[in-house]
Give the backbone structure.
Amino acid sequence: MILVMASTGMFGRPVVEGLAKRGLPVRATGRSEKGLATLDAPGAELIPADMDDPSSLLKLMNGVDKVLVNAPMDDQKEVREKNVIEAMIRSGNGAKIVLLTGGVLHDDALGAAGLATEKLMRSSGLPWTVVGPQTVMETNFKPFRELIQSESMLMSCVGAAKVGFVALDNVTDAFIAVLESNNDAHVGCEYVITGPEAVTFDDVATAATEALDRRIIYQDMPRDEFRKLMVTEAGFSESDVDIEVMCHLDAFRAGKAARTTDDFTRLTGKKSKSVREWWIDNANYFLST
């Protein structure tokens, strides 16, 4: 049995649905019973639990041999992931940890939280594998749909920094490859899942221009102005905007998201999707009203 934490989130949902459609035994969990019911995962067990409540987690571990440890990327991420790993240890069933960690090299509070979780994982006595998506195209590009439609523009504050953007479906395939393998495979391995090349936001605009058949430009902004825009226009709160948005863009600008690897190909035997291919695949999303 494979347990997927945060099963209705960006990473958890497609992994649960992909495992279930392959006929693999999967247990999905999240806070909301109603949210779990929206999963397109025939045969999956749906069990609500709260990572903020350690007492609710032990019941999830019965009969489980792998756990995708995955929590929302906010200031409680470390606590929640530690709660899951500690429940795995208490259960005594020796399940394998598959930890979703960031592929971007964060030198900040988010990076420190990730290192703390990894320290617990490595000292747990449990088998483990780390899979770190670099930064996914969906969260970087799709929020600009309205701006692209109205102004033919992308915005950020990272200058000419290069980023190894990766497609979400590639990340999903990488996790499924690890989770569907036997427990002895990939133990002690750390994978960083990236696209085939690192590109600038100007390169992204060029790919969008080709796919959408209209000229898209990239508008680079001063950091403080972009941060203000995220609060006043994008709806992020002052307490959330730094950990959910700005720390990632700061890492981009510092060159800490530029690496590329062949880990996706090693895990799946397939080539990772390029930014150009992603824009072609997602053109209808940006063109439809």
